[in-house]
Amino acid sequence: MNKIKDVQEAWNRWSDTDFAKYRSPDRIAKLITEPESAFHKTTYAMIREAFPSLEGKRICVPSSGDNHAVFAFHLMGAIVTSCDISERQLEHASNIAHRHGWDIEFIWDDTMELNKLHNNAYDFVYTSNGVHVWINNLQSMYDHVHRILDRRGIYMMFDIHPFLRPFGIQARKEIHIVHPYHLTGPFGEIPRYKWRIQDLMNAMIRSGLYVRQVEEMYAEDGLFWVDDSQNEGDTMTERELHQLCNWEYNPLAALPQWLTIQAGKL
């Protein structure tokens, strides 16, 4: 069975169903007025420190997903390439870009190969939340990230902190272990992977990238802990959502929820 094809077909389905809400007019309007809202505040500060101005910077976003980061980078003046394995995700994003007159390049490509991208082509490569869980070969991914970066280019990732991977994050007052930290997968019929910090950093280092900065962050609000697929947050009060960030009420809130790693190419 072709597992990559399974992932591709699944994302084509989800793009038209579960993830359609990420293309809502309200969400796109917020991105237009506040492009920085596409990023965690700490991650955005790191981007701005690395690139005080994004005007004219060549940026690639592999596994671009909902394309919020892609749209945000374009609105900040960058020249952006969006890559994804899901044709439907790219089609929907391209339609939004066309509707707003945004000049963005959309390319179907596997993040573990990036065959359609040239060597040394980008100043900045960025991967956002939810990328690594679908990657079965981290080394191949990072070898190609290194390849497409220009000399002195920057790579930055933002994703769920691996320390949360052993748990069911909707645990609330009780901690529930779903697997040991050292088991990385694959899990499920459509294969997912739960990489450790050492897996991520070692793959970067072996590719020739060097780690410049690591930040471990907490969720910016309680919505991190709710089941978005069930619109659970819509039924909770502001006080209830705030309580989810209190580790004495929700023990998992004592762990960092997000991880950003910045690496460079010599």
What is the topological layout?
Elements: H1 3-16, H2 25-33, H3 41-50, E1 58-61, H4 68-75, E2 79-84, H5 87-100, E3 105-108, E4 122-127, H6 138-148, E5 149-160, H7 197-207, E6 210-217, H8 238-243, E7 258-264
Parallel strand pairs: 1-2, 1-4, 2-3, 4-5
Antiparallel strand pairs: 5-7, 6-7
Helix pairs in contact: 1-5, 6-7
Q: What are its keywords?
A:
Rossmann fold; 266 residues; alpha/beta; seven-stranded mixed β-sheet
Question: Nutshell version of this structure?
Answer:
This protein has helices at 3-16, 25-33, 41-50, 68-75, 87-100, 138-148, 197-207, 238-243; strands at residues 58-61, 79-84, 105-108, 122-127, 149-160, 210-217, 258-264. It is α/β, with parallel strands linked by helices and 266 residues long.
Structural summary, described in words:
The protein is an alpha/beta fold and 266 residues long. The protein has a single domain (3-166, 192-221, 259-264), classed as Rossmann fold, CATH 3.40.50. 31% of the residues lie in helices and 18% in strands. The protein is built from eight helices and seven strands; from the N terminus they run αααβαβαββαβαβαβ. The protein has a seven-stranded mixed beta sheet with strand order 3-2-1-4-5-7-6, with helices on both faces. Strand 4 (122-127), helix 6 (138-148) and strand 5 form a beta-alpha-beta unit. Helix 1 (3-16) crosses helix 5 (87-100) and helix 6 (138-148) packs across helix 7 (197-207). The relative contact order is 0.14. The model has no long low-confidence stretch (mean pLDDT 94).
